[in-house]
């Protein structure tokens, strides 16, 4: 059974709680756990002086597409566990936007898996980031 969690969160993401959820059990074959904690940096990516960020689902199938892609990544890199949690709604600067975690047999697989799913999400074809 694949150990994959994919969520779009409307409530503020609690990174410590997510990591604890992720780390409840670890496979004996795990050599690397890699975490990506994406946050709303300031000055902004598009607008240097923003006050809030709005993360809007722009594809009704966003959750399904991210879940499908996560399953492909899980298989491609032979992962033991994968978490993909993305914030939606309006957030403040420095708030968490994205939490990715991969449990892999080796660090190359973990880094490549996280980088791949991150680039898929950052393409902004499913969730739009707007600095207000």
Automatic annotation (TrEMBL):
It is an enzyme of class 2 (transferase). It comes from the Bacteria. GO terms for molecular function: molybdopterin synthase activity. It catalyses: 2 [molybdopterin-synthase sulfur-carrier protein]-C-terminal-Gly-aminoethanethioate + cyclic pyranopterin phosphate + H2O = molybdopterin + 2 [molybdopterin-synthase sulfur-carrier protein]-C-terminal Gly-Gly + 2 H(+). InterPro entries: MoaE_sf (IPR036563), Mopterin_biosynth_MoaE (IPR003448). One of its GO terms (biological process) is Mo-molybdopterin cofactor biosynthetic process. Its EC number is 2.8.1.12. Pathway: Cofactor biosynthesis; molybdopterin biosynthesis. Heterotetramer of 2 MoaD subunits and 2 MoaE subunits. Also stable as homodimer. The enzyme changes between these two forms during catalysis. Belongs to the MoaE family. This is Molybdopterin synthase catalytic subunit. It comes from Deferribacter desulfuricans (strain DSM 14783 / JCM 11476 / NBRC 101012 / SSM1). The gene is moaE.
């Amino acid at each position: 059974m694949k150990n994959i969690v994919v969520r779009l969160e409307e409530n503020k993401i609690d990174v410590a709680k997510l990591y604890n959820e992720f780390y409840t059990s670890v496979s004996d074959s795990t050599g690397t756990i890699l975490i990506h904690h994406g946050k709303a940096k300031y000055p902004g990516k598009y607008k240097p002086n923003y006050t809030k960020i709005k993360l809007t689902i722009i594809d009704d199938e966003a959750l399904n597409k991210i879940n499908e892609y996560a399953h492909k990544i899980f298989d491609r890199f032979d992962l033991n566990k994968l978490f993909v949690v993305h914030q939606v709604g309006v957030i403040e600067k420095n708030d968490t936007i994205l939490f990715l975690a991969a449990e892999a047999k080796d660090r190359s697989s973990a880094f490549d898996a996280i980088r791949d799913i991150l680039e898929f999400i950052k393409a902004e074809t499913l969730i739009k980031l707007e600095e207000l």
